[in-house]
Amino acid sequence: MSKCVVVTGASRGIGRQIALDFALSGYKVIANYNKSEKEAEDLKNEIISKGGICEIFRADVSKENEVKALFEFAVSRFGYVDVLINNAGISKSGLINTTSLEEWNEVINTNLTSVFLCSREAINIMLQKHEGVIINIASVWGVSGASYEGAYSASKGAIITLTQALAKENGPSGIRVNAISPGVIDTDMNKCYSKEEMEELIDDIPLGRIGKCRDISKTALFLAGDDASYITGQNIIVDGGFLL
Ligand code: NAP
């Protein structure tokens, strides 16, 4: 029986690639989106046209009732959640002394509270079979805080320690929890950089290129699979050596 994966923020960027690669590897996919309905529908059509199974579901993953609805939908469609990928996220740049509480809360709620809310629902499902995998998409800026990205760095750093806490708490129940910390990946999130700024960034990356969404989706596939059955509580940095 094929497994079910819930991917948050699957309408664009890294989440889209994860949904696509999991579907093509035989997973039944619940692809969550918030604002990008057309992109989510395009993803579903692409997966189905390639022989995969996918349902899309709109939910703002920072909202408790919408997250509950997302997991109720997943169970109603596929009966169980084997894998959860907490990918949805936003970045807001700005000096901390000019960041409003509203901006701070938006970043923390979207990036971090969503991981709590979705993991809570998923764990309650996974406890039925004592089996499951959670993968949290953090960031290199959660390992080493970035200037001008205080709220983002705080949200991602907390995801890494929450990953460790969940791994310890749920390992005895057969649930593995890991994080992936991408470096600079080619998505809409980095559209704000000019060509020159991007070239400067690439100069700081030992492998000489920015990352592709596939660099992250393939790592997620490995962590979700049996070849990673003895790995939990880890944060896998996928950044071409950027942080070294
Ligand atoms: P992206 O291209 O901007 O896509 C973000 C995705 O998150 C979209 O599908 C968006 O859905 C979804 N999303 C945002 N807020 C949401 C909410 N409240 N509820 C549900 N979905 C929501 O970003 P990305 O680069 O792929 O980033 C994906 C993850 O990787 C994020 O957690 C990000 O922090 C992390 N990351 C990215 C990089 C990078 O360089 N790109 C580096 C390190 C870490 P809608 O459009 O439908 O609203």
Describe the model.
- The longest helix has 26 residues, at 101-126.
- The chain starts with a strand and ends in a 6-residue tail after the last strand.
- It is built from 7 helices and 7 strands.
- The mean pLDDT is 98.
- The chain has 244 residues and is α/β, with parallel strands linked by helices.
- Helix 5 links the parallel strand 5 and strand 6 (175-182).
- 44% of the residues lie in helices and 16% in strands.
- Strands 3-2-1-4-5-6-7 form a 7-stranded parallel sheet, sandwiched between helices.
- The protein has one domain: Rossmann fold (3-Layer(aba) Sandwich), CATH 3.40.50.
- Residues 8-9, 11-15, 32-36, 60-62, 87-91, 110, 137, 139, 182, 184-185, 187-190 line the site of NADP nicotinamide-adenine-dinucleotide phosphate (NAP).
Short description:
44% of the residues lie in helices and 16% in strands. With 244 residues, it is an alpha/beta fold.
Strands in their spatial order, largest beta sheet: 3-2-1-4-5-6-7
Number of helices, where a helix is a run of at least 4 consecutive DSSP H or I residues: 7
* Proportion of beta-strand residues: 15-25%
Low-confidence residue ranges: none
Approximately how much helix is present in the residues? 40-55%
Ligands present: NADP nicotinamide-adenine-dinucleotide phosphate
Structural class, by secondary structure, is alpha/beta
Radius of gyration: 17 Å
Please give the largest β-sheet: 7 strands, parallel
Q: Say how many strands there are.
A: 7
Q: Return the CATH class.
A: Alpha Beta
The tally of domains stands at 1
CATH superfamily: NAD(P)-binding Rossmann-like Domain
Shape call: globular
Identify the CATH architecture.
3-Layer(aba) Sandwich
State the separation between the terminal residues, measured CA to CA. 42 Å
pLDDT averaged residue by residue: 98
What sequence of helices (H) and strands (E) makes up the elements?
Answer: EHEHEHEHEHEHHE
